[in-house]
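Dear support,

I submitted the protein below through the web form. The confirmation email said the job was done, but the results page showed an empty box. After a refresh the structure appeared. I'm attaching both so you can tell me whether what I see now is the final result or a partial one.
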Amino acid sequence: MLEKADLKKTMIGPEFKQLCGRLKGELAVLQHAVKEKRLPVIVLFEGWSAAGKGSMLADLILTLDPRSFKVYSTLPPTEEERRRPFLYRHWIRTPEGGRFSIFDRSWYPEVSLARVEEKLRAKEAYRMMDSINTFERQLSDDGTLIIKFFLHISHKEQEKRLKKLSADKDTAWRVTPRDWKRYKLYDEYYTAFDEMLEHTDTPYAPWHVIASHDKGAAMAEIYRVMVTSIKSALAAKEKPPLLPEGSPEAGGFPLVRTPKLSDIPLDMTVDPERYKELLKKKQKKLAELHNRLYRTRTPVVVVYEGWDAAGKGGNIRRLVKSLDPRGYEVVPIAAPSKTELAHQYLWRFWKEVPKDGHVAIFDRSWYGRVMVEHIEGFCTPQDYHRAFREINEFEKELYDWGAVVIKFWLQIDKEEQLRRFKDRQETPEKQWKITDEDWRNREKWDQYEDAVNRMLELTSTEYAPWTIIESQDKRFARLKAIEAFISAIQKRL
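What the results page shows now:
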């Protein structure tokens, strides 16, 4: 892509002022429409050292209301950030609807600069670039506008600028030994940048290579791209969305067959005395494994889903009893907040991804997208159909990072749920557990059963399979969940 840039393009003063004045005026007006239509916008600047990223970014934000954007200067990941998936720190910086996130460098140095400086292997680089394409597609599908600029200069121009900056005592600090090293290895970086641009130039997040020898021509092109891209995105919001076509809802991931809920026998029980003996034994084993998880820095993500009153809370308590409290967190998931609703729906779950060596236990999860949000109309049919693929992609990203992904569905029958509901209503210390919403959900049992069957069918993957926990007998369910946890950890370790 870089060879196509016209590095000789220039723009004289009057021409620049007239064109940029008009474009800045349009952008100033458009930012209000962005806020009104709640359009999230990501603008990122990549490019060569001394290509002018800082000055062009500074020029751009002067046109915007400072309350509408946040600028992120992306540095190499800290040791803390390296303990999470590489996209974690970028996901949590994505903007709310109606706001701009502007990146001075972004997620791309980790697949471009790292090719030269960290000797990142091609296979891993392409896997990471595929993850970036997925990340950007998920944001775009949810309505985020992504504008990507790469500022390009020649080797000769880079030398000229670095020397000029170094010669002035007021700007010499801006040129580091790393910048000179990158100048000397220009050809190697050129190959890495070009590879990155080619692989991540997509219809939903295209690259705009900006020839930056002439700042006036470069700024005019940046403003032109900003204005035309925002106009197109605002116009697209007015069109009715289409259902996804072509690819299967599961996204082509390898699936594990699961039984339908109605075919699962629920007559398994365990003797109370035998239960106590087995529970103590398995919890001891769990404590040993937790130490190994921390030592090997293996992250674990556990998902608990199931019918209301299926026993998720009690099951979780027995699971975590023998874990070191410094090494796990239970994440209760309720209805999304106003801020969470203003982001792509996976944003709030990315925020809770554990550090390596730690365990995150989700009491309900991202699967609400294909159950309650779908049935209650809190997401569109388009959102629902995309969600199966997006969820599989999210869990694959966790798995590729090194996480063990364990998913439990706690199954009871309708009669047992009614018995437990009545018990909660009639027992003062349990009444807080039963709500009007629980009774409303029960009225839609058949709809939820169909939704769960479809969820199990399309999201039980080889790397993150569902385990059905027969929870008619809570003791049996607790033992089975702990056994499945132990088995999954031992298999990975």
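Response: this is the final, complete result; the empty box was a page-load delay. The first strand starts at residue 41 and ends at 47.
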